[in-house]
Amino acid sequence: xxxxxxxxxxxxxGRLNFPAKFRDAMGEGSFVVMEWVDNCLFxxxxxxxxxxxxxxxxxxxxxxxxxxxxxxSTACEVEPDKQGRILLPAxxxxxxxxxxxxxxxxxxxxxxxxxxxxxxxxxxxxxNEQRRQRMRELHI
Amino acid sequence: xxxxxxxxxxxxxGRLNFPAKFRDAMGEGSFVVMEWVDNCLFxxxxxxxxxxxxxxxxxxxxxxxxxxxxxxSTACEVEPDKQGRILLPAxxxxxxxxxxxxxxxxxxxxxxxxxxxxxxxxxxxxxNEQRRQRMRELHI
DNA sequence: CCAAAGTTACACACTTTTACCCACTTAGCA
DNA sequence: TGCTAAGTGGGTAAAAGTGTGTAACTTTGG
Lengths: 140, 140
What we know:
The structure is a homodimer.
Chain A: E1 5-9, E2 15-17, H1 20-26, E3 31-35, E4 41-44, H2 46-58, H3 64-72, E5 76-78, E6 85-87, H4 90-96, E7 101-107, E8 110-115, H5 116-124, H6 128-138
The first copy, chain A, binds a DNA duplex through loops.
């Protein structure tokens, strides 16, 4: 399970720290990072990639071939160094608009990598009333 | 079941005592604290988080991804130390406006963490007539 | 084919944060 | 008055995060 928010900055060598909790949740060794939507990056365990691949393979829809191509072409395998930092390819950094401040959040079964300003703006756009509505729907 | 009110203060290290009764009700080990609405924090057992996660994962609604991100990004796992204290991340303390005096209340299936002044003001704002009306609706 | 330049990987040192441990105080109770 | 449980305060060690140097590798141009 992934949750929580972590703020880091990309160092001069382009390295980005990845939260220790998430490293554990990713399992041993490497995991996968890919483009998602709204200029965020998707980080998920190898096992989840397999699951998605299977699901898309089973999909009868005509466009699953194009869809997986679009998605998987951006995916890359990363492995944290001894200090827990990862090095993202320039294309992914550019897609997400990552320059200095980066926010990594947990979201159920995956982590998301955002430019900090982008993430803050996105959260600020959610109103108290929307959250209240969500609470009602969840029947907590 | 969570009920009752407990008043504590945050110490110099940012630690906050968590009521013994609630610790028991949370079950063994750690539990989860997250932002809620009206500047209060929500504390609930791990099992409840799993339940919410499942429910949201099953949700067919287009925006469930955004919704879980908004909610889960604020969540954090905490485990009371041997004295029963928890350490809240700075972001959560800030959201709830916690500086010194903190009030923890029980509310059915979860606990809530409030700034004491905020909680007192909120209670003071409820009128006798509102309580009377609520009583009628509950058929107590 | 080789050398220079840039990139990536690895190692180490340092700082900050968090976890853990122990001691003390207070309140309730027999 | 002693006992127990709850709550509070502080010291110390481990872990997480950050910065810098250097070697290995890749790329590029002559």
